[in-house]
Amino acid sequence: MLNLGLDVVTTAAILFIVSAGLLMIFGVMKIINFSHGAFLTLGGYSSVIVGHAGLNWWWSVPFALLTGFVLGIGVERFIVRPLYARPLDAILATWGLGIIVGQIITLVFGREVQMVVSPVDGAIAVFGGHYSVYRLILVGVAVLVALALGGLLNGTRLGLQTRAVIMNESLARALGISSARVRFMTFCTGAALASAAGALITPLSSVDPNMGVPWIVGAFMLVLVSGSSLLSLALASLVLGGAQVLVSTFVNPVLGGLTIAVLAALLLRLRPEGFARG
Amino acid sequence: MMKKFSSSRYTRSVLAAALGAYLLAASCAALAADPVKIGVPVGLSGANSVVAPSVVQAAQLAVDEINAKGGILGRQVSLEVADDGSGAAGAQKAFDSLIFDKKVNALISMETSAARNAGLPIVTRGKVPYIYTSFYEGRSCNRYMYVDAWVPDQQVAPIVDYFMKQDHAKTFFLVGSDYAFGRGMLDFTKSYIEKKGGKVVGNEYLPMDGSDWTSIISKLQGAKPDAIITSTAGGAPNVTLTKQLRAAGVTIPYGNLAVDEGTAKSMGADAAGIYISGSYVTNIDSPANHAFLAAMQKRFGSDLKTPNDLSVPEYEAIYLYKAAVEKAGSFDTAKVTPALAQVSFNGPRGDIKMDKQHHTPLTMYLGQVQTDGSVKVIQSFASVDPGAQCPGLK
């Protein structure tokens, strides 16, 4: 019972970390960044580079943030911004970018699975049972991410401008807010977050050129039911992630993989705003 | 009145004769230089993309060696490699293009069960001999297909017997990928365990591309088995499962029916302690294996991909095809196909002869992965019979 509860909470935490970057970009720019998977993969390979350099694994996270941010700059400037008035084409362009980044990584690193040493190993005794230390750490990381993003959005001038652009872009521009700058910063931050998420999941997954692909659909569904609110994303991660764990445990894991997509579709049918406030 | 001999008619007939002579000469020249084409549909992309390069290298070495000694029946051998995407859709394209476009003389390759099952109807239609060089779940039968790799009847027993004897294991938990190979291997494992008096306390599957084993691992910890046996798709699923098992602190004896030395090395410390069973390990101490490894090293140098249980059968299969053609005295499918059951080849894995219902007895090795990623051989079993795989075929 305890194991199940911890499974739900840690799965929700992982889903939240992976989807946060996608949410930011969707909330502000109203486009789904389909190269999200490629940024996750980029973060995973950042861990590999850090490992090859002989540094402690924990350096992967800031390094991944950096590589994601830098790649985000180029992508926003040359791919997303020219397609600002054509959001559907921008979505298609990000999908193409995802494929290109995946192939570049294959050319540079090869197709094989790369080795990344886990920072912590094994399980810890918790309330009478045993549970994976790393998964528990990720819960803490998810909380940190939420607090950091919340702090950025609510406590800084840029955050205030971002919230204005989320609410009503034309009106914000009329008030003198540079929506181009907000979009730029948002995309880079979202990309950096996606890359960091990719680095954070390497101790639990294999680092190969396609590692980001399984996460795209789940993250996409979670973001669609969350609108643009971090709180809704947290709630959606808990509810939908929890449902995935329950179905995987009590029915079978093959159907569990479908749960998030099916529930998201049902939820949107019943309540189009999803978990966001109406 | 004498008919005037028309000059244009004369020109036409000269041209026609010249054209005919040219075509005859050209086709003679073509026939003499016509290479034997061996088609290799393999997973250059997709799940098998990690192991495909080693398979192609093994094929290339075999072809180079055979060509250096004069080819097959005087004709040089050329390889046609096609990507089957490690799946059914890609396999249909690859097999179609190799058999009907490139008109290969034979197909010799390793692929996923999904790809093989999709390709077999095309092989039957195209009437081409096909040597399947990958270990698989067994019982796939086609009059044109021969298998020179192991089936569960040869691979599972060493691991289960060892766990039951050495570790006194009575309860087992089985985990696999949800496709023909994963299910086939574990179905066989389950009935073998029960036949030997053990009990299977859990049997769970995840889709081939799934990477989240969380709920399965929780179930495993709840069931408290004595040992775990897994049969996932190669590459990523092996790595994610092992990493997540170790992260959850699972340390019971762990038998992996589907991991190779290369993948085990890339898992680092997480792979230490895993038991594997197969027909090839790089430290087999035989003259044939030493010669093979030296030749591979010389041919590929620093680009060499470690020879493994999926690539060495490919090397041996090409030699088996050569032997069959030489015995039949022709490349004609109707003559070569029965000959494949009659010839044998002594390769890195020992003597291979596909005379047991299109499958071959093999020497199997039980090994354990060490902390440095190498595999230590614990026991070997000579000439293990594949059992009755295709009673319908002779």
Describe this structure as you would to a colleague.
- The complex is a heterodimer of chains A (278) and B (394).
- Chain A is mainly alpha-helical.
- Chain A has one domain.
- Chain A has helices spanning 2-29, 36-52, 60-80, 87-109, 133-155, 157-167, 169-174, 179-200, 213-224, 230-250, 253-270, and strands at residues 123-126, 129-132.
- Chain A has a two-stranded antiparallel ribbon.
- In chain A, helix 2 (36-52) packs antiparallel against helix 3 (60-80).
- Chain A starts with a helix and ends in an 8-residue tail after the last helix.
- The mean pLDDT of chain A is 90.
- Chain B has a five-stranded parallel beta sheet, sandwiched between helices. In chain B, strands 7-6-8-9 form a four-stranded parallel beta sheet, with helices on both faces.
- Chain B folds into two domains: 33-150 and 282-360, Response regulator (Rossmann fold), CATH 3.40.50.2300; 153-278, Rossmann fold (3-Layer(aba) Sandwich).
- Chain B has 394 residues and is α/β, with parallel strands linked by helices.
- Chain B is elongated.
- Classes of the chains: A mainly alpha (278), B alpha/beta (394).
- At the A-B interface, helix 1, strand 2, helix 5, helix 10 and helix 11 of A face strand 7, helix 7, helix 8 and helix 9 of B.
What would you say about this model in short?
The complex is a heterodimer of chains A (278) and B (394). With 278 residues, chain A is mostly helical.
Number of strands of chain A: 2
Spatial order of strands in the largest sheet of chain B: 2-1-3-4-5
Unreliable runs of chain A: none
CATH H-level superfamily of the largest domain in chain B: Response regulator
Order of helices and strands of chain B: HEHEHEHEEHEHEHEHEHEHHHEEEE
Assign the CATH architecture of the largest domain in chain B.
3-Layer(aba) Sandwich
